[in-house]
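We modelled the chain as a single entity of 198 amino acids. Its sequence is:
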Amino acid sequence: MSIGGTSGYTDLAALPPLVADAVRLAADLGFDKSCRPEQGRLLHALAAGAPQSIGETGTGCGVGLAWLAGGRRDGVHIVSVERDGRLVDHVRRLFADVPDVEIVHGDWTSAYAHGPFDLLVLDGGGNAKGGGAADPVRLLHPGGVLVVDDFTPATKWPPTHSGRPDEARLHWLRHPELAAIEVRLAPDLASVVATRRW
């Protein structure tokens, strides 16, 4: 969930149609916390490697979900969890004709009932930025990939946030069950991408 993310989409004609529809929905609802285009392209690429299942926390208006759905293989099931019931209703309508996509109304912990996943995107909870950290052993298959979005790129070690060590980022980079790296997507944007160890 990126503040100003929806505003980052300027040329909707150049986007996959479902992504463009989700961006329009977000704009219509005044929701400006969609994943940015740089994040979306990363999710699109990673979704192609998931053999069976993808999970996401924080559906928002479905922009990230649309990138995931567009990149996945046929038959790969996606579960996206959103706590805002109003958004859930809108996104369910938007994805009504998209096969193998399930939008769950609940907080991020609802993902546990649907995992483990081959790819999990922690965008709306469970990301260790407040409100708890998801357990990758419970939520990922061995070899599964985890993505945590919306970090400012690190320029030193240890990475900092507001002048202090960035405990959320360090949680994932040092997690004993993960092999993790920070990936810079833009001068002001990075994601942590990690694989669950076997």
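As a brief sanity check on the tokenised model: Residues 125 and 131 are 7 Å apart (CA to CA). The chain has six helices and nine strands.
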